[in-house]
Amino acid sequence: MEKERGILFVLSGPSGVGKGTVCKALREQKLDIQYSVSATTRQPREGERHGVEYFFKTKEEFLSMIENKELLEWAEYVGNYYGTPIEYVNRTLDEGKDVILEIEVQGALQVKNIFPEGVFIFLTPPSLDELRSRIVGRGTETEDLINNRMSVAKEEIELMKHYDYSVVNDEIDSACNRIKAIITTEHCRVDRVRPKYQKILGDDQ
Ligand SMILES: Nc1ncnc2c1ncn2[C@@H]1O[C@H](COP(=O)(O)OP(=O)(O)OP(=O)(O)O)[C@@H](O)[C@H]1O
Ligand SMILES: Nc1nc2c(ncn2[C@@H]2O[C@H](COP(=O)(O)O)[C@@H](O)[C@H]2O)c(=O)[nH]1
């Protein structure tokens, strides 16, 4: 029997809201979902490994990925390029497995045009002050970059209206539970489940 395609989940939200932290916590719970690894031209942070957190690329390599249509979406974000390799996403969905992308808002909106059936989740901070203190606390950005990320964050929050769900990351376990509830809900939607039964029952049902 033909396999149902997996569901594409897109988790985005402002820098520092906790997307990476929440995805790591979800991974540790060994959910039946695959995590896409993005390409970026940004320099690796301490402890980041090529092929694990990101595929680290030169600008020339990244531009040639765009040219060769190897990216599902890409965006320039605070001076660096970020993009989702398309082959992994399509192959994994075709295998019937769900995929989650952790990406910023411009990229998420591009994905929405290509995969309108995807599920778009916006992770929000409890407040802008808390967002700033999370970025500062992470200790990975200079003062200038923190200010840049904060001003982009305000524009990004405006774009939440294009998403299907909003999840506040007040506390990691609660945010993970809300995301797991969304995943379960999406698998129960009649418009996703019905085609499977239609194949079994025939077209006249
Ligand atoms: N619920 C939470 N409560 C308190 N601190 C949190 C919470 N979630 C994440 N953090 C902390 O906030 C900081 C930013 O988190 P993280 O790096 O996961 O954000 P991000 O959204 O992935 O950022 P970026 O988009 O820049 O990669 C980290 O230091 C992390 O430990
Ligand atoms: N549009 C895309 N955005 C991506 C992708 N991978 C990560 N990101 C987002 O970029 C910012 C900055 O990330 P950082 O690791 O430098 O802090 C953050 O919002 C990520 O979610 C991608 O493939 N496409």
Describe the structure concisely for a colleague:
This protein has helices at residues 19-28, 59-67, 86-94, 105-114, 128-138, 143-158, 172-188, 190-201, and strands at 8-12, 33-35, 38-40, 54-56, 71-77, 80-85, 98-102, 119-124, 165-168.
Characterization of this structure:
By secondary structure, the chain is an alpha/beta fold. The protein has a domain of 134 residues: P-loop containing nucleotide triphosphate hydrolases (Rossmann fold). It is 46% helix and 20% strand. The chain is built from eight helices and nine strands. A hairpin with a 2-residue loop joins β5 and β6. 27% of the residues are buried. The site of ligand LQESDW3C has 15 residues, from β5, β6 and α4. Keywords: ATP-binding, Cytoplasm, Kinase, Nucleotide-binding, Transferase. It is found in: Cytoplasm. It is an enzyme of class 2 (transferase). It catalyses: GMP + ATP = GDP + ADP.
Layout of helices and strands, plus pairs?
Layout lengths: L7 E5 L6 H10 L4 E3 L2 E3 L13 E3 L2 H9 L3 E7 L2 E6 H9 L3 E5 L2 H10 L4 E6 L3 H11 L4 H16 L6 E4 L3 H17 L1 H12 L4
Parallel strand pairs: 1-7, 1-8, 2-7, 3-4, 8-9
Antiparallel strand pairs: 3-6, 5-6
Helix pairs in contact: 1-7, 5-6
Bound molecules: adenosine-5'-triphosphate (ATP) and ligand LQESDW3C.
